[in-house]
User: Fold this.
Amino acid sequence: MKFRKVGILLVLLSLWGGTMLFADAATQKVRVIINGINQDDGGIIVDGKTYLPLRQIASSMQAIVEWDNQSKQATVNKPNVHMFLFRNNNVFGNVSKGFEGSFKVFAQIDNLKADITAVKISIFDPGGNETVIQSGAVNPKGDNFWYATEDTEYKFESVGKYPILFYVKLKGLDEWQAVSEKQISSLAP
Assistant:
């Protein structure tokens, strides 16, 4: 009787192990790297097709994702956002460490296929601390518009990259989605 129980247990374990090996062979994990950054959630390969997490990929590429739960449809849109930085009416992109002064951000947005209600422009220091340059409600009358900030006082206290991000807020949602990035380099004197 004991031999029979052990035999059944061995058969069940063999079947389970074989199933797990087959499942592992049928689906493989995929490591996803976007612009040199390893993504938290990778993808999988099933039957020779690669599946990736849409919201994470779109967010990494600064695209807008809209989900319609009724039709089970995801729409991805990447608007063109060109930001220009002005200091005393001169375009700039590099500053010396310790520079303190004012600048403006001018953004040209086109190919906007989503309904947005607000925009926000922020600068981040090399440590990741955010300073909002300006935000406000918008009501674009088409797929393109321009947005300019007032003069912003800022001090570049350390050497490094200072990303400036352009965000939009979709109609009906309360979260910001980054759709463009520009960088200011703060260099050693």
Q: What stands out?
A: DSSP finds two helices and 17 strands in the chain. The first strand starts at residue 27 and ends at 30.
